[in-house]
């Protein structure tokens, strides 16, 4: 069986007229007109029309079957193609079994659960494939920009021995006779690593055992995290803003075909992003008739109201200390206010970050103040006694960023095999 292609379909054009080529892909459509059969064959790079004449073709050949086509490029009268391939031979690699669980061309619409159950086949739908081609570009852009900013990529453990960060929503598991947990973030590790590497980043999967059934929550998600020594929270806000803008710019410049398939008119965000303090947010809400006290958390309804005043991306900063984790640094001039921020797109929180405590005595006091078990943090606290630099950082959900880029409101659409409270397979 021959497996070698000479070209991807996207490489071909009428400039190669009369040239012999071998393409491989799946049959997207099949039409028989007398002794001639017209096939449309697609691979990940494009679509080609194939003319089958004077050679045998199995009567039971089905759409979505995988074939290798050996033929000559020639002119075509078809409106939708710049050229066609007249076959010398066609080899059926694998026949697709019908009926298929979903229609990958998208002529018959399937609900998201059926599509996820047949996710590999779903990727033959060009709208779906476009999302994951853009996701690839986004990841490439993130790594490139962070590397240019002198951040060093790290990989932290995903199996941990204690419920760090004080979070309750962790998955537990048996680990060689001991109790272990799946990490919900790299927070403590990335702080420790600023001791020697100063600027670090990680892009990896993390896990949260929250029984949330919304379009923005997942049990397994991809987080983009940075931590930087000798930076304040406003410094890492600027890094985040520049990173988001550069990602959008890369997608606009390099994913034109995918954006066209998605019918997405994407624009690069304008800088600077608005910076709204928590106190100002309360004032804006009060003017619209919603009165909150300092220290109250902001619900989706509140964030939607604030977002309507600040279209696009904006920072919500200087949150009350009572709403932030134990490792967040307070403001020098007001100990009730934190050096922290969230990056918002309307009501959607994309990122959360801030300045961290670097004084071990203050960190111990904060842990005790929040009723957390010091013994669970001894390894972390020990590292702070080796000379911890002042540092700041943030974490951002890749899937949430992707929903903004591609213009959809369900994170399951931008994950190949999503995990949520109801879905463990495939």
Topology:
Elements: E1 20-33, E2 36-43, E3 46-52, E4 66-74, E5 84-94, H1 112-117, H2 119-122, H3 126-148, E6 152-153, E7 159-160, E8 172-175, E9 178-182, H4 187-197, E10 199-207, E11 220-229, H5 233-254, H6 256-261, E12 274-277, H7 278-287, H8 300-309, E13 313-317, E14 330-331, E15 334-338, E16 340-345, E17 348-355, H9 360-369, H10 378-384, E18 391-397, H11 398-406
Keyphrases for this structure?
426 residues, alpha+beta, OB fold (Dihydrolipoamide Acetyltransferase, E2P), BirA Bifunctional Protein, domain 2, 2 domains
Tell me what you see in this structure.
With 426 residues, this protein is α+β, with helices and mostly antiparallel strands. It has 2 domains: 9-94, Beta Barrel (OB fold (Dihydrolipoamide Acetyltransferase, E2P)); 121-152 and 191-414, BirA Bifunctional Protein, domain 2, CATH 3.30.930.10. Helix content is 28%, strand content 28%. The protein contains 11 helices and 18 strands. The chain has helices at 112-117, 119-122, 126-148, 187-197, 233-254, 256-261, 278-287, 300-309, 360-369, 378-384, 398-406; strands at residues 20-33, 36-43, 46-52, 66-74, 84-94, 152-153, 159-160, 172-175, 178-182, 199-207, 220-229, 274-277, 313-317, 330-331, 334-338, 340-345, 348-355, 391-397. The strands form 4 sheets. The protein has an 8-stranded mixed β-sheet. A 5-stranded mixed β-barrel has the order 1-2-3-5-4. The chain has a 3-stranded antiparallel β-sheet with strand order 7-9-8, with no helix packed on it. A hairpin with a 2-residue loop joins strand 2 and strand 3 (46-52). Helix 3 crosses helix 5 (233-254). The radius of gyration is 27 Å and the shape is elongated.
